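Sample intake sheet
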Amino acid sequence: MRREVHVLSDKVKSEIQQLKARYPHPNSALLPALALAQKEHGWLSPEVLEEVAEVMELSPAQVGSVASFYTMFNRRPVGKYLIQVCTNVACSLLGAEHLVEHLKQKLGIGVGETTPDGRFTLLEVECLGSCGTAPVMQINDTYYENLTAEKVDQILAELRSR
């Protein structure tokens, strides 16, 4: 028996119901449903996952397994700006590890950490699928390509000025 949880807004629950109605099986709508839930909360807490499962009429284990498989879903709170640096082969060959070290120094945090002001979270990711423009990082929904330490400094300055 599931306990009743109420963390999603009525608007998001309605949007998830609409997504679910478009597909013959709720599993097919799970990725966009999780994206909606994350957009509302910034991350997918156990309570959010449980409510998504309830709305989708899926088991919490099914929903949790999908949320934990994809790196685009945050399983813990992140900063206002989630910086994900690709460290796969192409990015590594073109200096991604150097950029990660540069970001660690500039932000004063390690990989997997969030700045004390809650503005930046730094992660390394396996692949951002943009090998032709390596090295690459993604900040929230925006890609930054052909990076150098100087470009990273400009991007951080722009984000800090917002």
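Comment: The chain has a mean pLDDT of 94. The beta strands are 81-86, 120-125, 137-139, 142-144.
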